[in-house]
Amino acid sequence: MTNLVTGATGTVGRQVVAELLRRGQSVRALTRDPAKAGLPEGVEVVRGDLTDAETLAPALEGVTGLHLITFGGPYFAPLETGPRILELAKAAGVRRITVLHGGGPSLLEDAVRESDLAWTVLMPVEFMANALEWADGIRVDGEVREPFAGRLSAMVHEADIGSVAAVALTEDGHAGQEYVITGPQVLTLEDKVDTLAAARGRKIRLVELSEQQAVEQWRAAGQPEDVIGFLLEAYGNTPPVGRTVVDTVEKVTGRPARTFAEWAQEHADTFRS
Question: Where do the NAD(P)-binding domain residues begin and end (predicted)?
């Protein structure tokens, strides 16, 4: 079987590619710029753009498993091409689809759910990789500057999202399922900072910002206003799903979810000056 991974150079897409390869699958990766993909040997890298559905037609030839993202373009703009992408997938003979839920309404996800294909919706909570946003501040100033220090997160290792996707694409029993995917622990902001400090071998200060200070920091970093609004809501009023551990990873893959301590050790050099 050949599996096409869209968003293949992204945080989760790379992990889907890696896990499919580990399982001995044939992998085709879709990207706007194949020359910059930097994907492992053995991956067939093809050019395509989800915002232009017709570019997927050649990439879908011979594909039986398809991993989809629901956004395209800057700042995770929702795709408007979802229904056409599903038409092309069905015409190509795709049998299984995984969709990375984007957190909001999606024409593509709606089209997938309404199809008669074997679909699985992946609904991960906060990515552990989000901690990479702190890398510069930690390396330069030895600190993390964030609002809502008391917030809780059941953050998930992106490799576990990839593992769940790969199982759903290659094994029976996952059709019609919505999988909330979390890590094995609920962490405070202080827990995360302490874990990163232990991994890099040096202390890190946690500086709690007011909401206004956080907004100013995000604006200075170029975040659009709708993203800032989302961050204020997500961090200031984290919904129960984002701070409740579920055992999806173990049930689907047969092994426990990876911890943030494991993630921090894997990326420790990124946080060292």
Answer: 7-101
